[in-house]
Specification:
The protein is α/β, with parallel strands linked by helices. The protein has a single domain, classed as TIM Barrel (Alpha-Beta Barrel). The chain contains nine helices and seven strands.
Amino acid sequence: MFYRALTLLLPLLMAGTLLAEEALSPPTSRPNPHYEPLPFAPSLPDKFSWSSGKTEKKLIALTFDDGPHPQHTPALLDILKQYNVKATFFTVGKNVDRYPEIAARIIAEGHEIGNHSYSHGDLSKMSDSEIRTELDRSKDAIRRATGVEPKIMRPPYGGLALFPFQRSWIYTEYQYPTILWSVDPFDWRDRNSALISQRLVAGAHTGAILLAHDIHASTIAAIPDTIYQLQSKGYTFTTVSQMIAQKKNQKPNNDSQD
């Protein structure tokens, strides 16, 4: 009888021990919210938010976040010039203030600059007034450096860091559509140029908006092969604003992963 009772109790005791260990163990680190999928696809008019475009032409938009960087962005601009590719740069305002000559070069060479806030903070945690300050300071920095104002914006950390109602009032006040992406190479995490290029090429599709960061050397090293492969597949690179201007054949898409 004793042994039978012990046999029945042993699994329960082991389960209790495992639960206790689990409770005492440190929590698993949460993935970077920048790259978690949206828990739902908010329904927004296309003028408020874009993650890709639909067009009969085989267009694709290459975008770079968080620069300008004093070494990597000029190296990237040299590559884009070599391949005759136009791209969109979502610059951080404080970096534009640090390197205005690089921002000026971006515009001078036919690329687009978008507003990516001034300090790269999480806009979803800010008041409306604080968001306006971020966007205004960034806009002013871009205008001082380049003589032009941005026409689009991308929130730091992507779609999870800007609620639908915020996208709406930002568009109403600034006429900025929120630009997300449809292809994410995770270049912030995996500093492997071959892997970054592979992911960008594999994910590409007509109307795709490709995410990358011009603050990492591994990303810059991935771009020549990425461009070569995509051009070989018949894609033409364009800026984001040029892509979303293809209104006749374009449909809204708000299901980006962030």
